[in-house]
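Onboarding guide, step 5: your first structure request.
Type a short instruction followed by the sequence, for example:

Predict the 3D structure of this protein.
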Amino acid sequence: MDSMDENNPVLVGLGEVEVATRVERGEVNKADIKTDKTKREIVLSNVCTYFNLIFLIISILLIVVGSFRNLTFLPIIIGNTVIGIVQELRAKKTLEKMNLLNAPHADVLRDGKLQNILSQDLVKDDIVLLSAGKQICADATVISGSIHVNESLLTGEVDEIEKTQGSTLMSGSFVVSGECYAKLERVGADSYISRLSIEAKSMSGKEQSQMIRQINLIVKTVGIIIIPIAIILFWQSFYVNHDTFSKSVTSTVAAIIGMIPEGLYLLTTVALAISTMKLAGKKVLLHDMKSIETLARVDVLCVDKTGTVTEPDMKVEDVFLCKSGTHDTLHEEDLKRLLADYAFASKDNNATMKALKSYASSIKIYGRKVPLKISAFSSTLKYGSITFDDGCYVLGAPEFILKSNITKYENDILPYTERGSRVLLFAKYEGDDIENGIEKDVLPLGFISFANPIRANAVETFNYFKSQDVAIKVISGDNPQTVSQIAVQAGIENAQHYIDASLLDSDKKIAEAANNYTVFGRVTPKQKQLLVKALQNSGHTVAMTGDGVNDILAMKDADCSVAMASGSEATAQAAQVVLLDSDFAHMPDLVYEGRRVVNNIERSASLFLVKNIFSLLLSVLSAVFMFTYPLEPAQISFVSMFTIGIPGFLLALEPNKHRIKGDFLKNVLIKALPGGLTDVIAVFAIVMCGSVFEISDDSIGTIATMIMSVVGFMILCKISEPFNTRKYMIIAGNIFGFIFAGIFFRKLFALTDLSGVSILLMVIFGFGAESVFRNLTILVENIQILYVKNKERKNKTE
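The system replies with structure tokens like these:
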């Protein structure tokens, strides 16, 4: 076990036998709170669905009446189910491998040695070392050292809370600064974060995206209405029109099959699964599918400077004395020695301190002073401090340390900030206690400038976002002029428009600045969060990237959060998307993939909805005008296969980079409505003419099938615009498949020979359907344009 005396704690940690004992007792930091589906759940969720039950029932009914040819939908349903299972399992396997790469780790003391292990392998009573950027993985008590902790992810409070010896640490919070050893008290399912997660899971499922939510709405609505409609259609056909039992069953089944969007949910699942795997191949981990759609809608991307625009590592560029105000006895070597004392005594492990420690080591001027008190760097205060026996020394942002006196030293640092270097002030504080802020005089000693090179592909990346109408906002804790210069070099549009966030002392000022400026310097973590909210309140869809704990609050509130894996562990765990190789150049791939998959699902979904709108409206007309539903299930399957199913899936793989706008369901309905209404008008007119010209029911069904196919291919051509070689091949291939199947498998699809009158009617209605579809499309598009203009006019008035 660990042993320590009060003055000089010596920590050993658990031994191998003690760890094994706790593992046997189940006191391991592993809790079964995953919301991901197991393999069994994936199989069951694809097989045991409401619509599969409906298909099973209607299959049994068709077998009972001996209508075996109308079972042509079964291979499609079975194929859909198998494809859905295979793709989900593949995506699950891919994500599990990537999650393992991104799994949280902990530094733990065992047998007196510090080891880095998976957090889930920790046991009760383990002693862990916690430092800035680490997420607290189990409930613990501080036994040595001190840290500042942010518990906002648990409590909603954003204050940084100091934790010293004896303080309790809640799992799920994260370390902002400092370093301490803590003993784990409650692990696994007993920890605070686990209890919260289990409670949240039992209360509600994972939040769904707009697209998934509205597809579910379509599916649920159809699921509710098909039962009463099926009962009415069967009753009318069998009892009112006195059709045979077999005819009544097949016509009712045809209507039901037409209303069920059996391929829509599969299309969405497969498209998202394929996108997840494609992004995984580029070292991009998605913590949830929602982020794919959100990224497709993003029009503002907020980025931190360090680690995003620039490389994550810094290096000391220069150390120089203050030209004004420094006592004459201090020489440059004295300044460097004091800096070395500060660097080696500091517990901070941020990029700045790492660079300073590396510099101190390289110049071989080692500090000898023993720290009496350490206050870690605070992203809110913008400075940290260490007290030695000869006084208190401060390191941080010059503006925040010197306040109004900064004007005396602006000329000292201006040449560095103008070229994009980061400059910190090293000073001596005349007071004794700095915890409540700088209240007494500060004696500036010198400045340290840090070089932070821009990422090699930054210009190309930001040019891409410019071409895609995505505005960039650079939000940083550094000097605004420095950040602006870096942003200009990175090719960010309007980067010369910058502001010092310390001047933004009200929500109103933040809201105005969010819309008027591109670069924000000296931003506190809370202000980052408020800037994101202000942009959202202005109607923007906001993505936030970051790599440090000071980014977490803003990332939590952004529509989509993207973390660099090389940054803090807490940030990577809180984000929806993690760039595992920390390469910001993957962001265009991420946004493009989101736009591609959602645009294509939206386009293909409109194909599926054409059939649903047609079948629903024709069923209503059938019930009102007392005619038997004119189509058979095999004919519906025939049309669906070549005008909806196959082309829908092939088009879902097409390149597409347009930003998503508007409501998913509204967009889909607008695209589907002209085709659905054209089908209804054409088939209803065919049924009416059929009764006048005494055409047989079989011939009416065949004519209706042909007309629906013509309309289907017109819709396919419309949604395929603009054309390319691949789209031409998709359309031509499906037309060929349709003609081939219609000639050689016509009996299978219930197609009969037509008389001269029937052929004439088919040709006339074919041309008529083209005209109706074209004019309905123009009408719907004009209504949509008028709606958008009125909405824009209303917004301007408001």
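Each response can be followed by summary notes, for example: Confidence is low (pLDDT under 50) at residues 1-8, 197-206.
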